[in-house]
User: Fold this.
Amino acid sequence: MKYFAKIKYLGTAFHGFQVQPGLRTVQGELNEALNQAFGHPCKVTGCSRTDAGVHANEFCLTVECNGGTIPADKLPIAVARFLPEDLCLFYAEECDDDFHPRYDVKEKEYLYRIINRPIYDPFEFGRAWFLSRPITDEGLERMNKAAECFIGKQDFSAFMSEGSDVTDTVRNVTALSINKIGDLIEIRISADGFLYNMVRIIVGTLTEVAFGRIFPDEIREIIASCDRSRAGMTAPAEGLYLNKVIY
Assistant:
């Protein structure tokens, strides 16, 4: 039996999603919990990989089990008592055997949270990037102007960290919005796929635009250059959330 499931997790204490020997990972915790719930090992396949410290509001995956089954609508309750407090499986349904949670994705949305204030809020520890230098209204306006340049189908290799074996670096960014409410800045970006650290580099670049280190009009040139050294810094992992996956 094959299940399509959705999980959410606080990534602070995880070394990413994928199993790594000797390290605490989301997939590792799920494997153990499902083994307990079903009484035998299950195969877990995720919609993507997330780095250490990255969170998820809606991470999609499949669970394949041979042997005893649990009704899909009962799976979240059945597995809940075996999962840690920073991880939950909140939705499940049966799916076709040929469905793949990664290759069948049409679009993903990431959320990046910035706390922009001089004094840090301890209740946001590990959940947002604390940026003490103020982003002014003019800086926010520059960020929004620069954001328009990212929309569309383009080669985003200038916004990919080293260490990736991806050869096709063209992605279609369908939306990028920046909203500030009090001290909280939320950046949402949607695309048909993302390169390694692409969102974090875009966020870091946008903050450098806000501070005048990069001009909004330079963004198109940076994208066209395909040169990582011309883009901005990589924002910290703790502000990043996989927010939504669309099939």
